[in-house]
Design goal:
The structure holds 2 protein chains of 2 kinds. By secondary structure, chain A is α/β, with parallel strands linked by helices. Chain A is 47% helix and 19% strand. Chain A is globular and about 30 Å long. In chain B, strand 2 and strand 3 form a beta hairpin. The chains are: A alpha/beta, B mainly beta.
Chain lengths: 103, 238
């Protein structure tokens, strides 16, 4: 089951795609999304807000993903950190539903 | 021991937006089924009909290998890489979306529907420079599997960033072919475009999907004239 409100942080390097992601992540009534394009901004946002899910988007390398995942999990063991594929609406919803179902 | 999954055509997800009538073999957009997320690297298999003159406005993709196969009619593709291309039945289009691509896809005809398959594979390499390619599907060789896609940049057909091989064939009734898996450990997903087949004894109808793991060789027999089959060999990543 989805929590009452789902706070989602998305980090990716492609500014145009992250602008679209910002809109998509805030479209469902119970989703609140924030998108950033740097790891520093992701960590700053994480320190200010509580997130349920972090989506790792295009441009973030596997090494950078590993560092971010370790940081988020260390400070919030229950957080879901997931690679987002596709860059848009096709997979976003069911990626999140699947992650929540299998957390 | 072979492991198989049968997706009968009628069990697919369905979305009818008026201008777009889509059947989803795997979870996509508002269709969610936790048991239907992927077959290995094969993540999306959509069977789409787009009304005349209609289509998808510019939208982004990234880190996916996207294959479009028109079955009837034609699609006009425009992207921010500078490509404006019409892909018609008998051709296939491949995009490696990597770090990100914006594209639109419209029915190139105003008066007839465009019917196409759109297939997404997880890539074997993240954040590649986006690329676009289009190839013509050879016709005139019934009862033969033609290679459409491979990982080999110099191979037959086109290529993509995944250890995947796609083949397609049109068959007469009783026409038969064999297929040997190209890479050990890969699985094969069969999708019947038209007609009826048996694959290693499993009967399949039009638009059925059938995934098979741990089998290295397949015997394919057509049960109808004009039958058409798409085969997708993919790594069994989870």
């Amino acid at each position: 089951m989805e929590p009452k409100q789902l706070n989602i942080l998305a980090v990716g390097r492609n500014e145009e795609i992250m602008t679209v992601m910002q809109r998509l992540l805030n479209a469902p009534e119970n989703w609140k999304g924030l998108t950033v394009t740097t790891d520093e901004a992701a960590i700053t946002a994480f320190e200010k807000e509580t997130f349920d899910i972090v989506l790792i988007c295009a441009g973030v390398t596997p090494d950078e993903e590993a560092v971010l995942t370790a940081y988020f999990k260390k400070h919030s063991p229950d957080i879901i950190v997931k690679r987002h594929y596709g860059g848009g609406s096709g997979l976003l919803k069911n990626e999140i539903l699947y992650a929540l179902e299998h957390r | 021991m072979a492991k198989t999954i049968l997706h009968k055509a009628a069990t697919r997800g369905h979305a009818d937006h008026g201008w777009l009538n889509s059947h989803h073999t795997f979870s996509f957009a508002n269709y969610y089924h936790s048991e239907r997320m992927q077959f290995g690297a094969l993540r999306v298999l959509n069977d789409d009909i787009v009304a005349g003159g209609r289509g998808f406005d510019a939208h982004p993709h990234d880190n996916m290998e996207i294959i479009s196969i028109p079955l009837e009619g034609a699609l006009e593709h425009k992207d921010n890489l500078g490509n404006t291309v019409i892909t018609k039945a008998g051709e296939i289009q491949v995009m490696s979306t990597g770090t990100g691509v914006f594209h639109s896809e419209y029915n190139a005809n105003s008066d007839i529907p465009a019917h196409f398959l759109q297939i997404w594979l997880f890539p074997n390499k993240l954040n590649v420079a986006p690329r676009y390619d289009q190839v013509t599907i050879e016709t005139g060789r019934p009862n033969t599997l033609q290679q459409l896609i491979s990982p080999d940049q110099n191979g037959e057909g086109t290529w993509l960033y995944q250890d995947a091989w796609f083949h397609m064939g049109s068959f007469d009734k009783g026409g038969a072919a064999t297929y040997d898996v190209k890479k050990q450990g890969n699985g094969v997903y069969f999708f019947v475009i038209k007609g009826k087949f048996t694959i290693n004894g499993q009967e399949l109808d039009s638009r059925d999907g059938y995934g098979v793991e741990d089998v290295s060789s397949f015997n394919i027999t057509s049960l109808e004239d004009g039958a058409r089959l798409l085969m997708m060999e993919v790594p069994l990543i989870r």
